[in-house]
Every structure is written in structure tokens, then in C-alpha cells.
Design a protein that fits this description.
single chain; 211 residues; alpha+beta
Amino acid sequence: MLALFPLQTVVYPGERLPLHIFEKRYQELIADCEEHGISFGIPTVIDKKLEYGTEVKLQKVTNRLLSGECDVVCLGTRIFKIKNFYKLYPGKLYAGGEVTFLDDTQNSDQELQEELLKNISNLYTELIIDNPPVITIPFVSYQVAHKIGLAISQEYHLLKLRKESERLVYLIGHLKRTIPVVREMNRTKGIIKMNGHFKNFDPLDFDDFEL
């Protein structure tokens, strides 16, 4: 049985997750993590359903208030699928569930990583992002998934893919669809800015014109 903290977010293995804890049930959960060293799961709430999520471990409590509220930092570890969900973990205020931890195939290759980095660079160039994050090879798909404008449904789809090569291909495909859209938006903004301004046109010689 795994304690569960459902959220409308996607957490990936290796991700550091800051949380502000204010509900009594999750104050109890953090207290149990501190006292007993337990981990807990963050299943993604999407379309009012719970199915997949990521186990996290409490790393540290960074701030604690007299009210019991606190700020914590957790670290994502393993991905799981929920078999049974219980609104109350036995004897606790928080939820729990029976889960199956999923195996993962780390079959990445450098060519896919290089192609993904090239497309990320192109995206940041089109968006004119100052001080973009520095990403170096080798890396894993989870490290960049939150940095390229995925919708939560896309982040969730990525979470369910069990091969690293599939995740890299998925992210590359997303960027190849997104970059032309961003480029066209930039072109449109440029046209709008030119409205009402003097324009310079190339002279035409009419040599190739036909009626």
C-alpha cells in the first residue's frame, strides 16, 4: 500500500518538486514521512481520473509554520499504475492505494538526444528566450519535458511511455509541430506591427508576366 497525494500535475523520476503543504491530511502525511521514512505517490488527476503517477521521497522541509503548514522539497523516483484506490489510507487522513511499479527501458541514443537539443534550441530562438536553460548530452527526456511547452495531457502521455527512445521521438515530434506554429505567429506579429507604416517593395520588371 502506497500513500497517495493526487495532484493536477505530472511529476517525473529525478524531478525535484517543491510543495506547500497546508491541508491537515497532508500535514499528517509529511509527518509520517519524517518519522517513519515512508515515500508517497503523486498520481496525476486528469479527466477526473487517477491511473498513473510517480513515487516521491521527502528530501527536506524548508519552512515550517506554527499552524502546521510547511514547505517541502520532494524527489521523484519510480512510475506506478494504480490497481486500487482508497480515499483513506488505513488509520490515516490521507488517501492510499495498491500500485504496480513499472519497468523502464533506457534505450536512448546520442543521435536522438542531439536532434532533440537542436529542436529545443530552434524553439527558444523563435520564442526569443533570454538565458535559456543549459542542457548537455547525455540527458534523459524527463529533464526537458517541462521546458518545451507541453500541455498536461502531453506530459501525462510521456509519463506512460516505457522506453526512453519513444519519449525522445515523441518530444521531437512535438517540437517539429510547434516550431512552425510559433514561427508563423512571429511572422503575423511582424505584419501587424507594419500596419500603417511605410513599406519598401522590390521593383518588378514585368518580364515574366502574362495575361
